[in-house]
Amino acid sequence: MATAPAGTLYRGREGMWSWVAHRVTGMLIFVFLLVHVLDTALVRVSPEAYNAVIGAYKNPIMGIAEAGLVAAIVFHAFNGIRVVLVDFWSKGTRHQRTMLWIVVGLTVVLMAGFLPRHLGHVFGGL
Amino acid sequence: MTTIDAPRSPRMTRSTRRTTRGSFEMAAWLFMRISGVVLVVLVFGHLFVNLVAGEGISGINFGFVAGKWADIRWQIWDLLMLWLGMIHGANGMRTIINDYAEKDRSRLVLKALLLTAFTLTVVLGTLVIFTFDPCPAGSPAELLPSFCTA
User: Fold this and answer.
1) pLDDT higher at B7 or A2
2) Do B61 and A121 touch (CB under 8 A)?
3) Half-sphere exposure (CA, 13 Å, Cβ side) for A24?
4) Sorting pLDDT into bands at 50, 70 and 90, what band is A80?
5) How far apart are CA A82 and CA A93, in angstroms?
6) Does residue A121 sit at the B interface (CB-CB below 8 Å)?
7) What is the model's pLDDT at position B54?
8) Mean pLDDT, to the nearest integer, of A88-105?
9) ipTM entry
10) In terms of pLDDT, which residue wins out, A102 or B9?
11) Closest alpha carbon to A72 in A32, A42, A43
């Protein structure tokens, strides 16, 4: 018998989409973390090996991907604090939707500060 | 399978509640919240120092890493970030596997892969932090932090 995925159906709207976004950003960050430990481990091979691989992170395409990764981390961090507040603050569930828009707003503000600085480093002399 | 009480069923009391005390899932749930808050501080600090301050990503090279890890406080910072991040991330992946992998066999295979990746990454990362040599013999001086030649 065909079955719907158990326990993953939700009620739509902001609550469900923030939960989906939390999962997607979480998986992305985890996969990057595995790669990031490997690239950093090259410091044990030789300075040349580390510098060569880290050089790949400095090209423009990777630089833009890093900006996306940072955005994912910032959203996941702020939304995680929202989850903690929903769970532990007595008024958390009542304000969950408002808090999501605060999360989105803070993410946009922080990225607006980060992007010019980071892209300036990546593209140089901007 | 989880059973959900019918609407308007009597409120659960101390004696009718199916206890969750001492359960692994309760500990995992609490760990995600506590480690999450700590990780916000650790990761934001990491991103600021490596990507925003100074020359940002263009300043990252062997000498930069060696300069940071010359200070035991950055070693502790990175070690804590590695362990908390890996446990937090692996537990999140475990939750996702439990939600979407329906066959017992696929769950087992995916969790075995996850445990392998977790163990290898944590062991490798920990060894790198503790066995790191900022001034490896025979390397050109211009690639090393300035204190190697001092």
Assistant:
1) B7
2) no
3) 10
4) very high
5) 10
6) yes
7) 81
8) 91
9) 0.86
10) A102
11) A32
- pLDDT band of A10, cuts 50, 70, 90: low
- Report the candidate in A115, A116, A126, A124 with the shortest Cα–Cα distance to residue A59: A124
Nearest-Cα distance to chain B for A20, in Å, is: 11
Q: Is B125 on the interface with A (CB under 8 A)?
A: yes
Which candidate in B25, B37, B62 is best for mutational testing of the A interface (most A CBs within 10 A)? B62
Q: Is B39 on the interface with A (CB under 8 A)?
A: yes
What CATH number matches the domain at B24-148, 3.40.50.2000, 3.40.47.10, 1.25.40.10, 1.20.1300.10?
1.20.1300.10
Q: Which tops the pLDDT comparison, B138 or A74?
A: A74
**Cross-chain CB nearest to A5 (options B43, B99, B144):** B99
- Across the interface, do A58 and B58 touch by the CB < 8 Å criterion? yes
Q: Which amino acid is at A48?
A: E
Q: Which of B59, B63, B74 is nearest to B139 (CA)?
A: B63
Low-confidence ranges of chain B (pLDDT < 50): none
